[in-house]
Amino acid sequence: MQATMSTPTWLDTGDNSWQLTAASLVALQTVPGLCVLYAGLVKKKWAINSMFMVFYAFAMTMVCWVIWAYRVAFGVYMLPFAGRPGPVLTIGDQLGQSALPSATLEQNFPLSTMVYFQFAFAAITLGLVAGGYLARMNFTAWMVFVPLWLTFSYCIGAYSLWGGGFLFQMGVIDYSGGYVIHLSSGTAAFTGAYWIGPRLKRDRENFPPNNLLLMMVGAGILWVGWNGFNGGDPYAASPDAGVAVLNTNIATATSMLTWTLMDVVFFRKPSLIGAVNGMITGLVVITPGAGVVTGWGAIVEGICSGIVPWISMNVAGKKLGLFKHYVDDTLGITHTHMVAGTLGGFLTGIFATADGCAAFGITNPGGAIDGNGKQVWLQIVGALFIIGWNLFWTSAIMLFIKYVCRINLRMTEEQLLLGDDAVHGEAAYCFLDDVDGPVPEPAVVEGVRVNDLERAESSGNINMIGKDGREAESKID
């Protein structure tokens, strides 16, 4: 005889359905979203490695999350910035009602739904961090970095701002991760890129995307998936969830158009890659206040995110010696996430409304436009904590991996030269498999015939003449 399934009195099936849908949309932003976005944006020889870094982070985050990390981010108070670690793997935990004990909040869906929803946020954060390290970070070092950074950086920001920690108690607003996710990942990308060192000189000078169509697929998944990213954070299928989704799309469209206009004005050509950057900065800038600002506020934020990060990337990023010689942030995560995340948090302090805050379930009396200028300073304090914490812990983790674990942060020179084939033994595009007819000419890697490369390596002569007559770069850049 089959047992009758009981429905708990606290369960709202509509809220649970929306939360699981939102969680799935966020997860899709990482796998396949970021995977294919990165694979299309990098050189052909780095497509596999770029996807694999994100894919690995997604899986490793899941395992760490359910064994100890979720409780650090959303558990019982242990420190002002961290909950007590522990697993969420018993059937009693998974079937029970979701609650944030340090924030004295409950949700109308099971803890299993909450754990998965928040996992998707943690996973995409590590995927974003990877964007600053592509094309030279040792994969073994990345394997160690992911669980350490998740524990000592991400979880601290999540507890401090969302789980009931000290920034939450102070009243800092981070609606859906402008600080917890974007500011932290941008700061980690900036800091880690310094410790790992730059790409090969030839890669920095010539790094064309290998597949813009693939990039656009990833960009589209990111934009649409952001409806779950911001729309899921009221933890209910509420009016405020609708506000967050609408404002997200308003700000993103405005930012993309503004960035494109900036490209036309200064470079005389509209750029698809630039438009995608503008899309991303729009998504990031609205995230700290998606459901608490008005539609007009979203437009203003979109205009700002199409201008300020554009200046950061195209002026500071290209002219400052810091970025030219020391911080090689491969995909510009510093500009699209650190700068845009800080900007979004600051603008939330200005444009947050009392009605929006009430709809979201927080007691803040709005921002500066509602006469609460104090909110601007609270937002600045929150940003400074996240930046400072990540500067320290990302550096500490990198140095721990290098000097304690004795794992090189960078790939070997051979791997840097050959890319995916040397690192993973795989190639992204295998168009010559099982070709009938004449044997194709030897493959060319970075303008150097593979047969020539092998002969030169065996003889110790690394400076060779490539197929096009130009001297190939030394393996020691």
Q: What is the helix content? A: 55-70%
Give the CATH topology of the largest domain: Ammonium transporter fold
CATH superfamily of the largest domain: Ammonium transporter AmtB like domains
Biggest sheet features: 2 strands, antiparallel
In whole angstroms, the N-to-C terminal distance is 72 Å
Q: What is the string of helix and strand elements? A: HHEEHEEHHHHHHHHHHHHHHHEEH
Short synopsis of the structure:
By secondary structure, the chain is mainly alpha-helical.
Explain this structure to me?
With 477 residues, this protein is mainly alpha-helical. It has 2 domains: 18-404, Ammonium transporter fold, CATH 1.10.3430; 430-477, no CATH class. It has helices spanning 13-41, 47-74, 91-95, 111-130, 139-161, 166-170, 178-196, 201-205, 212-231, 239-267, 272-286, 295-319, 321-326, 333-351, 354-360, 374-404, 413-418, 420-424, 450-459; strands spanning 77-79, 82-83, 97-100, 105-110, 444-445, 448-449. A hairpin with a 2-residue loop joins β5 and β6 (448-449). It is globular, with a radius of gyration of 23 Å.
Summary tags:
mainly alpha, Ammonium transporter fold, two-stranded antiparallel sheet, 19 helices, disordered C terminus
Q: What topology does this entry show?
A:
Blueprint: H1 13-41, H2 47-74, E1 77-79, E2 82-83, H3 91-95, E3 97-100, E4 105-110, H4 111-130, H5 139-161, H6 166-170, H7 178-196, H8 201-205, H9 212-231, H10 239-267, H11 272-286, H12 295-319, H13 321-326, H14 333-351, H15 354-360, H16 374-404, H17 413-418, H18 420-424, E5 444-445, E6 448-449, H19 450-459
